[in-house]
Each structure stands twice: as structure tokens, then as C-alpha cells.
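Study the following:
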Amino acid sequence: MVLPKHLYYLPFLVSLSALVLAWYGTTCHFLQFQSTTPISNPISGQENKIAIQFGYWYYQSWTPIENNEYNDNSDYNWNTGPDLEGCEMYPTSISADNFWLAARGLNLTVAILGGAIMMLDVFQGCRSAQRTVTMQTGAMGYLVCCVASGFSLLMLNSSLCKDNSLIGELNSQLATAAAAAGGEGGVVQFEETCSISTGGKSTIAATVLWFVAAVVTAALHPFHTKEERKASGSLNEPLFEPNSST
């Protein structure tokens, strides 16, 4: 049975979506620490719980303010300015444990391997969209990306999640500031353990898409036996093997 030609674009589109989601997972929004108490917004006056974001390489910067001029009813407020949205490199005093380092390495593996497969496909004229090629190596590469992406969630078992020194330091600063102010504004604290954030969720979605890309690629471009390759007179290529049979 001859499948519609547009179906052969599916592996490329799925893997492209996976790569975009994987890239978003590298931002400073992989995991988060939420405040245990509502924090007043110095501009609107509304009280909401907020979350501080952390990622593989960056974390969300913050600037706590005492006796902020925008809100006289609270002795300790949160700065809702641009610094709260910015991502910064971790300070040199922060050391990554084995889980954190492993998650970083696996994330790089996904970005490099997944990107390389797609770039080779593009440079060779989008051969994945052709019926008469086999992409067994490409399918295996997507499967490796799936496994690496899934194991990058080890980040949730790292010291960054379970024993975050930056959050501990911030909680101490907030408690000290509240005590110095006589406790009138309350003690704002953040949870001691993390929860998954949008970047982590996008990594999970990317893991699923890498698996779909591997399965669809293998299904649309089946493996050719050695006899078939000899009959077609093709050479063994690292990623794609053309097949002249119709």
C-alpha cells in the first residue's frame, strides 16, 4: 500500500516540535519553589503566591525590598520589576551534585543529537520526506533522544530541588527582615522542596514526541535487508540509505 506523500513529513515535524520543547526546558523554568504565604504586589496591592524558577544552567533572579515605597501596608514586599523575570547564571559558590550534572549532560545530548539529525536531513534535501529511503539510524537517534530527555528529569532528584542553598539563604534573609520590622508584615517563606515548572513539563512533552518521532520514522522508513541493499547497489550511509526500488 502506498501511503500519501504528506505523511512522510510527519517525522520531521514531530522531531522539530520535540526540539523546540526540549530547548524551552533548558531555560530557568524547569523547576520552581512556591511561597508558603501570599505576597503582596507593591503595584496592584493584590496578594498572591509566587514562585521562583530554576533551571539546568540559570535561575530566576530576585530583589526583596524592605518598606517599599509602593506599598506602605507591608514591611516586606516582593519586587515585581524586571529582575524577577530575568535569568542569571548560577553563582560560582553553587556546586552541582551528580544528579544535576547528569541531567545537564543528558539535556546537552538531546540538543546536540536531535539537532544534528534534523540538520543532516535538511542539508540532504529533506530525504525523510522521500518514500525510497531508509532511516534506521535516524530512528535510533530519536529513540536515544527520548531516553536522554526522560532521564534529564533526574534534575528533580538533585540538590537543587531537595536542598537548595539559594532558597535557604533567601528564607533566612526574609525571616531576619521580618524580625527587624517587628513582624508587622509577616514572615514570607518559600517551600523547602521544589515542584516541576513549565520547563520540566515541556521536557516531558518533548520525551513523548521524541518517542513518536522514532516510531513513525521506523514505520515509514522500514529496515532494508543486506540482500536488498546489495540489489540496489547503495553504499552504507551514516544516517540515510537510499533504495532505488519502487
Summary: Confidence is low (pLDDT under 50) at residues 67-83, 233-240.
